[in-house]
Write a structure and sequence with these properties.
alpha/beta; four-stranded antiparallel sheet; 15 helices; Aspartate Aminotransferase, domain 2; Cysteine desulfurase; 406 residues; seven-stranded mixed sheet; PyrdxlP-dep_Trfase; PyrdxlP-dep_Trfase_major; PyrdxlP-dep_Trfase_small; Aspartate Aminotransferase, domain 1; 14% strand; 2 domains; pyridoxal phosphate
Length: 406
């Protein structure tokens, strides 16, 4: 079943906002539009429940209940236990906190594997563990395609490796890595696994429980929600990592790695993400709640994106004045498309804006993959990214604008 695009776009107030009329949004990898249920819940919290939660009076009780609702519903959609899902201020900060916990647990001479395909948020914090005597082993991308070859990981694994860190999707390369297969290889070698899902989750929430990583991180604000970082930490790892929160929170898994108090309103508003996913599934004849609804929504989103992405990839691949980064088959990647123009991309992005296209140019915190691909990070790339609410007409408009500008 194809997406009911009129219904989908009606769930996002941005599409009826006069100031955005006539503009097609192609910088979703930097942050998606928020869906109406998130906006409604956030507004209600600030109007009615902006008090310290979990006290016995009604406004406080309702505020705490809504925070608990967000965690429970989203954890179920991700295929994990309620308390294995934590909220924090951002994925970058969540990763730094986790890296500090590993710094305390690991011993000098033990090793971790990092990649040069990652966004800096899932690379820099882990690389700093070298300051504590932890050995860093870099799993490197193919310099031409950006592909992260799982067979090359085997050469890096041995009994010293305690952690393997990699992205579900690189925000530069766009290719979807096989999380389940890579995780199985790492676990077989006795290593924990941390996956950056920031560039995958907006295209459909994954079943983290089935995929198997010990840590899975993503950003709600790129997944139609508020500006929160979300992290799954499976209990087997979370219980052995040193507590990073107040000592009296050590026994609560979802609090152990959030040393600062969470943003109550934004945590509560995250339940709106579940509202939207369930409504999307139900609208298209799928399950109305829980993991089943998440799977149905995931498949609907991916099918829409693959259909729209292939014409854009074909158009870019046919040009001889640019370099398309990553796979040319839409089914193998997310609709996050980086293009090396062999010149500064910002003026091109500015010219596209004159044609009603919202896109960006730069390094996108991807210095390492850009360098690995032989692209100067100071020059950067033009990035064109969309999600399931993007229309066929908007992709056609993008291609026409690229023709005019390039």
């Amino acid at each position: 079943m194809s997406l009911d695009m009129d219904w989908v776009r009606a769930q996002f107030p941005a599409f009826s906002e006069p100031s955005l009329a006539g503009q097609a949004f192609f910088e979703n990898a930097g942050g998606s539009y928020a869906c109406a249920p998130v906006i409604d819940r956030l507004t209600r919290f600030y109007r009615e429940r902006k008090v310290q939660p979990y006290a016995p009076y009604e406004a406080s009780r309702l505020g705490g209940a809504e925070m608990d609702e967000a965690r429970a519903r989203l954890a179920a959609m991700l295929g994990v236990e309620n308390d294995e899902l934590s909220f924090g201020p951002s994925t970058t900060q969540n990763t730094y906190v986790l890296a500090q916990a590993f710094r305390q647990m690991l011993q000098p001479g033990e090793a971790i594997v990092v990649t040069n395909q990652d966004h800096e948020a899932n690379s820099g914090p882990w690389r700093r563990l070298a300051e504590a005597g932890i050995e860093l082993r870099e799993w490197r991308i193919d310099a031409e395609t950006g592909h992260l070859d799982p067979d090359r990981l085997d050469d890096l694994l041995d009994e010293k490796v305690r952690l393997v860190v990699f992205p579900h999707v690189s925000n530069i390369v766009g290719e979807i890595n096989d999380v389940a297969a890579i995780t199985a290889r790492a676990h077989a070698a006795g290593a924990f696994v941390c996956v950056d899902g920031v560039s995958y989750a907006p295209h459909g929430l994954p079943d983290v429980g089935a995929l198997g990583p010990d840590i899975y991180l993503f950003s709600a604000y790129k997944t139609y929600g508020p500006h929160q970082g979300m992290m799954v930490i499976r209990r087997a790892l979370g219980d052995v990592l040193p507590n990073q929160a107040h000592h009296f929170n050590a026994g609560v898994l979802y609090k152990r790695f959030t040393p600062a108090g969470p943003d109550h309103a934004q945590v509560a508003a995250s339940a709106g993400m579940a509202d939207y996913i369930e409504a999307l599934s139900a609208r298209h004849g799928g399950p109305q709640t829980g993991a089943g609804a998440a799977r149905k929504a995931h498949d609907l989103m991916r099918a829409q994106e693959v259909t729209l992405l292939q014409p854009l990839l074909d158009y870019l691949a046919a040009r001889n004045d640019l370099r398309l980064i990553g796979a040319r088959e839409a089914g193998a990647r997310a609709p996050t498309v980086a293009v090396d123009l062999h010149r500064a991309p910002e003026p091109v992005a500015a010219a596209l804006a004159d044609h009603g296209i919202m896109a960006g140019g730069g390094d996108f915190y991807g210095h390492r993959p850009l360098t690995g691909l032989g692209i100067d990070p100071d020059q950067g790339v033009l990035r064109l990214s969309f999600v399931h609410y993007t229309s066929e007409a908007e992709v056609a408009k993008l291609i026409d604008a690229l023709d005019a500008v390039l």
